[in-house]
Amino acid sequence: MSRRELDSLDVAILAALRDSPRAGYLELSRLLQVSRATVQARLDRLERDGVVSGYGPDVDLAAAGYPVLAFATLEIAQGRLDEVTAAMAAIPSVVEAFATTGPGDVHCRLAASSHEDLQRVLLEVSQIPGVARSTSVIALTRLVQHRPVELLQAAEVPPASRTGAR
């Protein structure tokens, strides 16, 4: 689904879910002043189209015992990205990784319980066959939270039809 297919009601539903993640269809319909069937139909479509990808809890890794956050940039030997990806997936402290353009081939987000634990993780990542070079930085504080709903709210979206189907 492209962003242009979202209308203001879709974005309002996403914002309401962000603000009240445990709200059911009835509560969301009350908050948004649309029918329960409309909310359900819209959410079903947002899920089917992959816009809503899950309802799991947001986990604060620092509060869960992993207060050290770092980013590693990996340079990968040509043709070894799949092998490196599989090896990174086997390291639980690699909580996210992206193939990128620009300097480096892969950027990873790493979580660790201490600086010593981070050192262990960095060594483990740098020793993956196919990793030619790695550099890392430690995050000090988060300045901006992950905020996809704010991006969607700022975009120009068509007005909502107040029905479930569009």
Describe the structure.
By secondary structure, the protein is of the alpha+beta class. The chain contains 6 helices and 4 strands. It has helices at residues 8-19, 25-32, 36-48, 81-89, 115-126, 148-154; strands spanning 68-76, 94-99, 106-112, 131-138. It has a 4-stranded antiparallel β-sheet with strand order 2-3-1-4. A hairpin with a 6-residue loop joins strand 2 and strand 3 (106-112). It is elongated and about 55 Å long. The model has no long low-confidence stretch (mean pLDDT 92).
Summarize the structure in short:
The chain is α+β, with helices and mostly antiparallel strands.
Question: Topology of this structure?
Answer:
Blueprint: H1 8-19, H2 25-32, H3 36-48, E1 68-76, H4 81-89, E2 94-99, E3 106-112, H5 115-126, E4 131-138, H6 148-154
Antiparallel strand pairs: 1-3, 1-4, 2-3
Helix pairs in contact: 1-6, 2-3
Beta content: 15-25%
Taking the sheet with the most strands, its summary is: 4 strands, antiparallel
End-to-end Cα distance: 13 Å
Mean pLDDT: 92
Shape: elongated
**Regions with pLDDT < 50 over 5+ consecutive residues?**
none
Q: Please list the strands of the largest sheet in the order they lie side by side.
A: 2-3-1-4
Radius of gyration: 20 Å
Please give the count of helices: 6
The number of distinct β-strands equals 4
Helical content class: 25-40%
Please supply descriptive tags for the structure shown above.
166 residues; alpha+beta
